[in-house]
Specification:
The structure is a single chain. By secondary structure, the protein is of the alpha+beta class. 35% of the residues lie in helices and 14% in strands. The protein has helices at 8-15, 19-27, 44-51; strands at 5-6, 34-36, 39-43. A hairpin with a 2-residue loop joins strand 2 and strand 3. The longest helix has 9 residues, at 19-27. The chain is elongated and about 55 Å long.
């Protein structure tokens, strides 16, 4: 039984990413969720906990950052 369920869009606003990224994290098993019909619901506490996990800065491609001059 979920005590404070939220939608992927609401979780995205809490974490600071897109709803699409939330769905990818759910499918990867990194954020626990339950599926009701066609939507996933996430516990608010799970979204808040995920937000507090420290992560290194990255870029959209996932590749290492390089300078344009090749150094």
């Amino acid at each position: 039984q979920m005590t404070d369920p939220i939608t992927p869009s609401e979780a995205a606003a809490i974490i600071g990413v897109t709803a699409r990224r939330i769905r990818a994290l759910i499918l990867a098993g990194r954020i626990p969720a339950r599926k009701f019909g066609q939507i996933h619901l996430i516990e608010r506490s799970a979204a808040v906990a995920f937000r507090s996990i420290p992560r290194p800065p990255g870029n959209r491609t996932g590749r290492a950052r390089t300078r344009k001059d090749g150094k």
